[in-house]
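Show me any protein, fold above all:
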Amino acid sequence: MRVIHGWKGLSEADRGAAVALGHFDGVHLGHQRVIDDAREAAVRLGAPLGVISFEPHARMHFHPEAPPFRLMTPNQLARRVERLGADRLYLLPFGVEMASFSDQAFAEEVLVEGLGVRHVAVGFDITFGKGRTGDPEAMRRYGARLGFSVSVASEVAGEAGKISSTAIREALRDGRPDLAARLLGGAFAIEGVVQKGRQLGRKLGFPTANVPLGDYAPPRFGVYATRTRLADGRRRGGVANIGVNPTTGEVDPRLEVWLFDFDEDIYGEVIETDLVAFLRPEERFASVEIMVEQIRRDAALAREILSRGA
């Protein structure tokens, strides 16, 4: 799969796809329906399958001071849509220029002149263009006039109602990674570079890999059973704390994961950790000794959960 940044000056080899259009933060089951529609069109037209998203997210342009909210990084997005069969991922820069396009200008200048799309698949609730004036019916009109076909995916409902990135963030805030996974069609995962901390965990007998939360929507602070993919593709079960570490000295929100049966130097490497099950809220313990005993109980419970394939 090719990752293409922008829409200007593309070669003909990078134009002419049947595309799914949206922000695709999380690539949840609703997003996957839109991509499925684009795939059907790609097969029908004999065209490549493309996914169009925006980087940074529009919310970061309009509300730069908003709390962290993302469900995945661009790298995670690329891997997810590649697994879904995409040939191209178009990451369109969202800045002053993109924010100024009317819905008509977006269709004409970005979709047609820039990307040369042959089909555009959208969700039932999409809006586009300055002031969110464009909607699915507007996209159909532009397609009929400009020469591309359009499909509109219907709503996908889950146990918590409409499947949406907002519903997934709420599930994570509630300490429900299981529900988030069902809405996503796969585990919510935190990816980042392992940073060197105070190495207190190693001194206490459980060395942790520390990854800052950064722009991720923060899950409920607490302890989780986890599975981690290492940089070389190996996977390890573990137990992780997400939070600010109130017992030994507060830090910026981060993931601290103890990988079971593992003792290698991975500082500076990128790891990705799936949240499998929520075990308990983060606590401030009366002493480090009490905390260590609780962590050992957490680890035993996490091993049990992971052994069941939860």
User: Anything to note?
Assistant: Residues 102 and 255 are 41 Å apart (CA to CA). The mean pLDDT is 94.
